[in-house]
Specification:
single chain; about 290 residues; alpha/beta; Hypothetical Protein Tm841, Chain: A,domain 3
């Protein structure tokens, strides 16, 4: 039997967890000397309140290998296979912890860690497609081939509404942030080769969201794509971007979700973005 695990840095419709039997291991969030388990000890609203009140950006820590072992053993029996899909190894140690857990329980369970080299909704789509393929009888080799296809082609791009939180996290200097604020510049960041990079600086929010769509059009043209609109405490902005995306791109499926707490705290409220990948029209495509 195949079990699927991901981490709480994955942005995924809550219903998918039950519908596609996807297990989520929480990332640890540390603030003011206290450690919280993401989504268990803190929901997104309480987390935002905590960051705003303390004026501190939390540090994040991957689940320990024993956390993985405990989860793996609770969901599987000897002889089962666990596909563990995680946030980019270049951004977090979640994948490394899964590899260490594999060494501990490898004789009882077949653990297959998969480095997404991405995160957010990309890992959600990977987990969902893995389950769909497994339900159709696909072997692990076919599933991993499909996940590699998504990993190689997914695009992730966000635009930030404020640099206040990036300043608090130390990712940008206060003077730079002040200049950007006066000029109404909205930075655009993308996940490239497993890392987050600033790729554009655009004047005004309207132009920034238009630029996100232009990037997706340049990548996919009129290919059918699956899309997620991800936002940080900005549901109205997410809805507006979703309507624009559906008018501009050949979307087969679209969902909207809140950005995970750990990432949202660094990018700040108002952040919105697009996660998209093309649908392959061959034997690897689940139906």
């Amino acid at each position: 039997m195949l079990h699927i695990v991901t981490d709480s840095a994955t942005d995924m419709p809550l219903a998918w967890r039950e519908q596609f039997d996807i297990h989520v291991i929480p990332v640890n969030l540390c603030i003011q000397g206290k450690t919280y388990k993401d989504e268990i000890d803190l929901d997104c609203e309480r987390f935002l309140e905590l960051v705003a009140r303390t004026r501190q950006i939390p540090t994040t820590a991957q689940p320990a290998p024993h956390d993985y072992i405990e989860l793996y053993r609770s969901i599987a029996k000897p002889g089962d296979t666990i596909l563990s899909i995680h946030l980019s190894s270049k951004l977090s140690g979640t994948y490394a912890s899964a590899e260490m857990a594999k060494q501990e329980v490898g004789e009882q369970l077949e653990i297959v860690p998969f480095d997404s080299l991405s995160g957010s909704a990309a890992t959600a789509f990977m987990a969902r497609e893995a389950r769909q393929l497994a339900n159709k009888g696909a072997g692990l080799d076919i599933i991993l081939e499909r996940l590699a296809y998504i990993r190689d082609r997914v695009r992730i791009a966000f635009t930030l509404d404020t640099l206040e939180y990036a300043v608090m996290s130390g990712r940008i200097r206060r003077l730079q942030a002040a200049v950007v604020s006066v000029l109404q510049i909205k930075p655009i960041v993308e996940v490239r080769n497993g890392l987050i990079e600033m790729t554009d600086k655009v004047r005004t929010r309207k132009r920034a969201t238009a630029r996100l769509i232009e990037k997706m059009q340049a990548s996919f043209g009129d290919q059918p794509i699956n899309v997620a609109i991800i936002h940080a405490w900005a549901s109205e902005a997410g809805e507006a971007l979703c309507h624009q995306v559906q008018r501009s791109l050949n979307c087969q499926e679209v969902f909207i979700d809140q950005l995970s707490n750990g990432v949202a705290s660094h990018l700040g409220p108002g952040t919105v973005g697009i996660v998209a990948y093309p649908i392959l029209q061959n034997r690897l495509r689940p139906t």
